[in-house]
Amino acid sequence: MNKAVKIAAEFSIPYYQYLNSESKVISPLPEFAKNFEYLKDLYKHMVLTRTFDTKAIALQRTGKLGTYASSLGQEAIPTGIGKALHPTDVFLTFYRGYGTQFLRGVTMEEIFLYWGGSEAGNNFKAESAKQDFPMCVPIGSQYLHAVGVATAFKLRHQKRAVLVTCGDGATSQGDVYEALNVAGAWNLPVVFIIENNQWAISVPREKQTAAKTLAQKGIAAGIASEQVDGNDVIAVQDRVAIALEKARNNLGPTVIEAITYRLSDHTTADDASRYRNKDIVGKSWQEEPVIRLRNYLFENKHWSESEEKEWQTACSEKVEKAVANYLNTPPEPKENMFNFHYGNMPKSLIAQRDKFL
After folding, report:
1. How far apart are CA 331 and CA 324, in angstroms?
2. 3-state secondary structure at position 162
3. Taking all residues of the chain, what is their mean pLDDT, rounded to a whole number?
4. I need a surface site. Which of 17, 170, 217, 339 has the fewest CB within 10 A?
5. pTM, to two decimals
């Protein structure tokens, strides 16, 4: 390089991991992770989320649920996020954040209702969930919503944070770049999570972008950015908690790219066997988050086969109860397809409603 040429900027993307794919601790654990009872709670929640997920797919296959997006293999990310969020924070999710939603008070019945075609599923009953946003299906637009909420917090001088999630494919959307730019320029109290599960439907990560990491896309916006092992629930919770506390104290936004792998089809309308390499899928099953933490608990004699069977049974019973409640929910009144589009319904829509009814 010409010695007269100055380097205008340089950057690095740190990567955080505590529990590796072989269930070995490779870095000093944060305080919460030294408590095995707490780790058992994290594990149990991931198992419950996976049990729900398995049942949802079965319901769709038998015609009792609409198209459904699975979170199989990604349970550590929403679990870690949910544990890190404070009650006064606001959570905005795309369509795989069930684990966080459950921790925020959203019920399984509500998620079933949503995927069953009823918007009533987004009318969260729990007070702890009412400030959170519903699942966002349009790709990337929730990032813009998040900076709007974060702007309100900043203008009101509230010590609150916003956390928003998206998949790797969304980082190719203009909405995401625009949101990052505003958050950096205005120093907003928001944490951006990129769940990099390696696939934007059938498009692999390497064909989506030439960037070496997705996290570095935050660097261009002046945002501190990092990667975390998304299959290590300890690392996810620790790094998200640090980023949220930073946001609450008006110290700026953070981008966290959580590296994981989508073990399921994109949705139940997809067939991933058409485009995925079986060997890579098989290897990813050895690195997934549930078995990783379970093996760690087993090895340290803080979980047993009998406890595993008991918890599996308890999860199944809880999910089956939610299914029964969902299937027994009365259908929405026909007029509801008209009633919630406008604060004041226009005459043309009133005429349509009256003619329909």
Report:
1. 14
2. strand
3. 96
4. 339
5. 0.94
